Amino acid sequence: MISIKRILKIIGKALKNALFILCVRHAPKQIKKDSIIIIKTDSIGDYLLFRNFIPEIRLAYPKYSITLLGNIAWKTLSKSLDSNYIDEFIWIDKGRFPKKYLHTIIKLHKIQYSCYDILINPLHSRDETSELIAKYIFANSKYTSQGDCINLQSDAKQKADLIYTKLFPSSKSILFEFYRNQEFFENFLNKKLSIKLCIESKIKTQNHHIKKTIEQGEYATLFIGANAIYRKWSMDHFAKVACYLARHNMNIIICGGKEDLENSNLLVSIISKSIKDMPLGNDSKQPNKTNLNITNLVGQTTLNELAQIVQNASMLISNETGCAHLGAIIGIPTFVISNGNHLGRFTPYPKALQKIYYAIYPKSIMQAINNEKAYMDLCQSFAFRSNLAINEINADCVISTIESFLCNLKTSKQAILN
């Protein structure tokens, strides 16, 4: 027997849906001739692995007005980097859309003001947000990828597929996300593409505190944040790596989100105590304590300011998150601690794209990484989520990877001098 609570829930949902249908527009206010809207509502890393294809759309449609409907999380960076190709931006706050009902209705009402010629949704793993927007935007033609069911159940995806004019085929195998985007845009543009993954220009901000901080000498950036607890390495491990870098007289800048503030204060405390307890001496591996700076900028930077910090760093040590993609694409030595989440899709970077990206995983992945079959089996297993504990990765594994990089760098410099 259905409970009263269950009945009320069903009635409430039906009333909400009825209100939704009544409130959204049933016709656009204007027809935007020669216009394209691109839906890209996923995270910072997804955006960074997509944005180099925007110029190709502009090249193919030089006289079209192009609108990018994106995630507000990467608004500042996109406006800095993509404004030469994008005519209009529309921003979605995924913390509110579609969770907050009234906000969602108001936002959709604004989005529906215009009718576009072409809607492009390049997301391979489409979700509730992207499909709700794609459904209610007015467009003469709508294009997307066949994609997968990672973010949508099979029946929901089948319904969502009906929104589109055409679904382009997509490989069933695990592809690194940049190559997945290339697959989609080659299908959409009907031509082979040779695109470089890069951030084309130096990112500069007007924050004088940031400028002063990055001018204090050689430094490493530690990014301690991530969007889930199981993707966050412990502060004790980060502290050991920081102390190793301090022995090389490298300053430390700690970054992360506001939610990481408590952890960052703990990290600074552990590092400061460890450095204080280091013996003084003539050993070249003892830090110059008087000149060493540990700067905690957690929760204090915009995405552009974070990018400026990363691009001026000697190296980045980061959880597998948007900042790791920033470091890799900017082209600085990037050391990424990952439990193998989305293995093969977002990590590791193929050497053809980035040679100085170093991923450190739990032992079971590290043992399989040079065995193609075992590695691909793990990629399939961790396509949605890895169940491996990130803190299985000890600090010594990361330190030895950095040590090896620094030794090779020193050898290369000596070879050039000789």
TrEMBL record:
InterPro entries: Glyco_trans_9, LPS_LOS_Heptosyltrfase. GO terms for cellular component: cytosol. Pfam families: Glyco_transf_9 (PF01075). It comes from the Bacteria. SUPFAM superfamilies: UDP-Glycosyltransferase/glycogen phosphorylase. Transmembrane segments: none annotated. One of its GO terms (biological process) is lipopolysaccharide core region biosynthetic process. GO terms for molecular function: ADP-heptose-lipopolysaccharide heptosyltransferase activity. This is ADP-heptose:LPS heptosyltransferase. It comes from Helicobacter muridarum.
